[in-house]
Amino acid sequence: MLFFYCMENQKRYRAIAIDGVSSSGKSTMAKRLAETLGYTYIDTGAMYRAVTWYFLEHQVNIEDENEVSKALDKIFITFRMVDGKNVCFINGQNAEPYIRIMEVSDFVSLVAAISLVRKKMVSLQQEIGKSADVVMDGRDIGTVVFPEADVKIFVYSPARLRAERRWLEMKETNPDITVDEIENNLNMRDHIDSNREDSPLKRAEDAFFVDNTNLNVEEQYETALQIIKGKLS
Known about the structure:
By secondary structure, this protein is an alpha/beta fold. It has a single domain, classed as 3-Layer(aba) Sandwich (Rossmann fold). 49% of the residues lie in helices and 18% in strands. The chain contains 10 helices and 10 strands. It has helices spanning 26-37, 44-57, 65-73, 96-99, 102-112, 115-129, 141-145, 159-170, 179-195, 217-232, and strands at residues 4-5, 12-13, 15-20, 40-43, 77-82, 85-90, 93-94, 134-138, 151-156, 208-211. Strands 4-8-3-9-10 form a 5-stranded parallel beta sheet, sandwiched between helices. A 3-stranded antiparallel beta sheet has the order 5-6-7, covered by helices on one side. It is globular and about 50 Å long.
């Protein structure tokens, strides 16, 4: 098992890594698992979305390494509890109202593929893991961020099914969005995530594989919880 040590009290910390394809329900599952276990939940996807939103707002040329580096130096990402929810803040501003929009979704995989961005985010994620028991979900948690995590889970479901589920969540706030549009976005993101040079999306060799094609939210959660309990015991 992997344990992180805090120099002040020598407490041992555990890490649970949940990776998987875009919009596979891993964040919803990870949040609930963290609540059940009493661990800190870190939405690494929100971190990359926050950087993407900042880049779009400040018109950062992502092909200019110097410009990207300067922008990253100005970005400070934290998480705070707001009304019982772990909320992502960027430079002191609540980023949640902005980072879930389609424009950010269209560009987040391109930004996340930038080596400078990944290095900064991975470093921050690893620092968080040194001070608390954590459940983290993302693309490279079990392979790069915490390669020796106590428990690793990889979540998968087909793009069409993910698009249909996502459409149901988005149709009220974005009535013009179509399932095809969402599916195309997911396929694009999956392709970029899986083929980038720096820490691509892939299943760690020792990760438990959870195909949620025929699982509802509750069943997926229970499946993961039993995996974790069995591994930690």
